[in-house]
Every structure is written in structure tokens, then in C-alpha cells.
Design goal:
Layout (H helix, E strand, L loop, with lengths): L2 H13 L10 E6 L23 H16 L2 E6 L15 E4 L2 E4 L5 H16 L3 E2 L14 E3 L6 E5 L6 H10 L3 E5 L12 E3 L5 E3 L6 H10 L5 E3 L2 H5 L6 E3 L2 E4 L4 H9 L3 E4 L3 H4 L10 E2 L2
Parallel strand pairs: 1-2, 4-5, 7-8, 10-11, 13-14
Antiparallel strand pairs: 1-15, 3-4, 6-7, 9-10, 12-13
The structure holds arginine.
The site of arginine has 15 residues, from loops.
């Protein structure tokens, strides 16, 4: 890296009120499901679920998740807004990196109203806003996941985010980006089928990707480091996991998957999130990593 870029980045993170400084403790950004509902359908999970989600069950499940995460991380929250039922899925707010926030530009009109609220929250908390050029569709950390072992951003496209977002993010955040094409509408965000874990371990559902993308993943991550989940685990959103140190928090994993994760040195913490599955979301999407 040229020296000015490094200086610029240090300067930015020192300025930001939310920069983790020396702290090891992670920060997660969440939004309580105070106005959560399935009131439209923009993914296959929502079909047939209109009006079927229970607000009180969702709140209880979210509160339990927050409690678990609070043991490992600091939780920041934004107030829920009436009329924006998908706002609890803060993974889609944007992508945060080095004290800079790249806001999402949602594909569906139903979620575009969230954009201004998220931007305003980060602006108010002293975070620099860096926008992608033009009208590129990008759904934040739902489709953009940093590798935990190498300096690399994995980027999902083909369902919600556009291919062009990968190059835009690479330029804006000065990171290497690997675009992966998603081909199954049930796995419409990268975080539904791909989860980089510490020490370079990858949890993923290969069938959600086209052949070239699968090959790309296999060329970058050694087979001994890849844990491929089966369709049943994938449909239970096992890949939509939050990793905090050696803990992996998710809705549910089969005995086989738990053993595999255990062998890789991780401790699985299950917490029911099925009320959110009616909207097509699970553990990881209810959070946005802030470091
Ligand atoms: N109903 C929301 C949508 O379809 C769910 C978002 C899930 N978010 C995610 N990062 N996978 O947009």
C-alpha cells in the first residue's frame, strides 16, 4: 500500500467514535423487531407467509439472540421505524470497514425506505459515509463478507447485489474483492450460503453458486478448511451464522454439522430464530459487524 493510504486510514479510524481502538471486543449493530412483519414478498421464503409472523415471538427470539451476543460483543442499536418491517435485518444496512460506511442501495422498493435511516445513524455516530458510484445495487453485509484469515472481501451477486458492486467496493475500501455468482433464489444473499469463520475455515452450501464461482472458492480455500453443509442444514440457515471468537451462533445445526464444527475448534450455540425465517432471515442478518 502507498503510505498516504495507510495514513489516511489511520486518521479515519482515530476520528470515528465507533472505531474499536485497541479493544478486542467486537461491536454488532442491531435493530429490535418492534415493527417486524411479513407484509410483502420479495424472496421465496416470504411467499405464503404474509401476515403470519408473530411480533411477540419475534421479539422474544431477538431478545434471546441479543442476550447471547452481548456476552461476547458490544451491541449498538438503531430504533425500529414503523412501515419498514425488514429493518431488523441490519446486515443489509451497508458495509462497515475501517471506520467507513458504504450504505446499501436496495433492489426492491419495499426496503429502500431503510437507507436514509441507516445513513443518518452512522453519520450521527461520526462515521464517514462512502457511496458506490451511480445506481449500483448493493445490499451490504448480506452480500459482502470479509474473510477472517486473508485480506479479502467475498461478494455475492446475481440475486440482490450487482456484479459492478464488487469493483466499486474494491476501489472505495481498498480491498481485494472476489465476486461469487448466486444462482438459487432461496439463497438470495451471500450470507445465506457462505460463512467465513476464524482461522480460514469456511462454512458454505456449494449448490447455491454457479460452477465458476464454486471453482473460485475451491481454488482459494483448501479442502481441509471447507465445511460444505447439506441442503437440510442450508435450509435451516446454518450458514447464516455469527462467529465471535470460537463461538458460532446460529438457529440450528444437524448433529453431523455440529461435530464438524466441533472438530474444527468451534462451539455451536443454537438459538431459535424461526419467526424470522418467514421473512427469509436468520441469525447473522440480524446483525452488522462494526469493526
Ligand atoms: N425480507 C428480507 C429481504 O428479503 C430479509 C433479509 C435477509 N437479509 C440477509 N442479509 N440475508 O430483503
Amino acid at each position: 500500500l502507498p503510505v498516504p493510504a495507510i495514513v489516511d486510514r489511520m486518521h479515519r479510524s482515530q476520528q470515528s467514535a465507533l472505531a474499536p481502538a485497541r479493544a478486542q471486543r467486537k461491536r454488532l449493530f442491531m435493530c429490535a423487531p418492534d415493527h417486524f412483519a411479513v407484509s410483502y414478498s420479495i424472496n421465496p421464503w416470504m411467499d405464503g407467509q404474509l401476515g403470519r409472523a408473530s411480533g411477540s415471538r419475534a421479539k422474544a427470539q431477538w431478545t434471546a439472540l441479543r442476550e447471547i451476543l452481548g456476552r461476547h460483543a458490544t451491541i449498538e442499536t438503531i430504533d425500529a421505524v414503523e412501515g419498514l418491517p425488514d429493518m431488523p435485518f441490519t446486515a443489509n444496512a451497508g458495509l462497515l470497514h475501517d471506520g467507513r460506511f458504504v450504505p446499501s442501495r436496495f433492489r426492491h422498493a419495499e426496503r429502500r425506505g431503510e437507507e436514509a435511516h441507516f445513513i443518518e445513524w452512522f453519520r450521527r455516530h461520526g462515521v464517514e459515509i462512502g457511496r458506490l458510484p451511480g445506481r449500483i445495487l448493493f445490499e451490504g453485509a448480506g452480500d459482502a463478507l470479509f474473510d477472517e484469515a486473508i485480506a479479502l472481501l467475498w461478494m455475492g451477486h446475481g440475486q440482490r447485489s450487482e456484479f459492478a458492486a464488487a469493483a466499486g467496493l474494491a476501489r472505495l475500501l481498498d480491498v481485494d474483492t472476489v465476486p461469487l455468482r448466486l444462482v438459487d433464489p432461496r439463497f438470495y444473499h451471500l450470507d445465506t450460503c457462505f460463512c467465513p469463520l476464524p482461522r480460514g475455515v469456511l462454512l458454505w452450501y456449494p449448490a447455491a453458486f454457479d460452477e465458476d464461482s464454486r471453482a473460485l472458492v475451491e481454488s482459494r480455500i483448501h479442502s481441509s478448511q471447507r465445511i460444505a453443509v447439506d441442503e437440510a442444514d442450508a435450509l435451516a440457515f446454518a450458514c447464516n451464522a455469527i462467529s465471535l471468537g470460537s463461538a458460532v451462533v446460529l438457529h440450528r445445526a444437524s448433529g453431523r454439522l455440529k461435530r464438524q464444527l466441533d472438530d474444527a475448534g468451534f462451539t455451536v450455540i443454537e438459538t431459535a430464530l424461526n419467526e424470522f425465517h418467514k421473512a427469509g432471515g436468520s441469525a447473522k442478518r440480524l446483525t452488522l459487524r462494526m469493526e
